[in-house]
């Protein structure tokens, strides 16, 4: 092989744009090549932004059962990017049952798509199990347009499809405990036991929390401080973690897919919907293969999802299983907590809220301390870089009350809220007489000699 200079232009593997010039005979193939070039640039831009949900695409469970089974969901309009950089767009809300399609899908248009429009046999949820609702690209032809051919002197000789439309399709992907690599044998056995006890609200809550953290890769990431230099296949051992990566390793999820929600199916239908255990904002590609568990953007985006998931879980409990949520300690409902979060407390006209002595009755606490609202967002943002807390271990929690919230509660205009934070986070309840209010403050002691 002859030597070449690094300064030589590299053109041959580049994006091919049709060159239009006067007198060139244009065919449909030339126009398709032009569209293909545009699509390729859009795909590369989409990959640079990252895979995930950009806007909308929230999934909600309809309260009215169909044929006595809770199986109807509404997916809000929105759009996402998949790992191939394709834009997946749902232009309107859809409400549909989790059932197989009633008609055979039409042949795909496959208009310059990198993802083949395969039509796998839909998964039908049966018995008791965990499933992930997945969105993938789809396409089809719409409307008709007249056509003429070369040598036909402009006469119409037939019709062709006018539009090749990019769309989406949805499917369920099973998530059985045995494929989750981050779970130990004991944890898999516990998941099976909890799946068999989904009629109990506390068991459903504990199952939801454990599975969500297995999707976040919480147990695997906890091993990073044990051996930060652990290697696998010549790279960091933490390049892949969590149940979603397990499904990708098994090729049951591909770069064409965007997970939207985790659901539990039992004899009554959908027992819970959990979006943020699998939903992510766009995650850009890895910058390297050495320190993904410490430096990559994925960690921060998953920390955001972790906090969103916990808050949604708490509100769902209080909205649907309030008797359980208000009478059970935290460790009966959760195995893991985010490093910081908000808790809606009872009182102030709130129909259902937590009682701190019950919820955290078995935990080691410090507080509650009053803090200014100005410290809340920085506290939550800083917590994003800290690991999840595992209840049952020797942990300490800081408890805080927001001064603005307590004033509004005293005035009878709102309901109380508490803030908890990992003991590993720096304490933010120190006495601040210059900015605090005397009746909603913390007081330090002064020693006079």
Give, in spatial order, the strands making up the sheet with the most strands: 8-7-11-12
Distance between the termini: 86 Å
Number of strands: 18
Rounded to an integer, what's the Rg over CA atoms? Answer: 27 Å
SSE pattern, N- to C-terminal: HEEEEEEEEHHHEEHEEHHHHEEHEHEEHE
Helix and strand composition category: alpha+beta
Count of separate structural domains: 2
Instruction: Give the overall shape, derived from the CA principal axes.
Output: globular
Count, helices = 12
Q: How large is the share of residues in beta strands?
A: 15-25%
* Largest sheet composition: 4 strands, antiparallel
- The average pLDDT score comes to 85
Low-confidence stretches: 445-449
Residues in helix, %:
25-40%
What is the fold's blueprint, element by element?
Blueprint: H1 28-49, E1 52-56, E2 59-61, E3 72-75, E4 78-81, E5 87-90, E6 94-97, E7 129-147, E8 158-174, H2 185-195, H3 201-216, H4 218-221, E9 231-232, E10 235-236, H5 243-249, E11 258-266, E12 269-274, H6 292-295, H7 297-320, H8 322-327, H9 330-333, E13 336-337, E14 340-344, H10 356-359, E15 364-371, H11 376-383, E16 389-390, E17 396-402, H12 403-410, E18 417-422
Parallel strand pairs: 15-17
Antiparallel strand pairs: 1-4, 2-3, 3-6, 4-5, 7-8, 7-11, 9-10, 11-12, 13-16, 14-18, 17-18
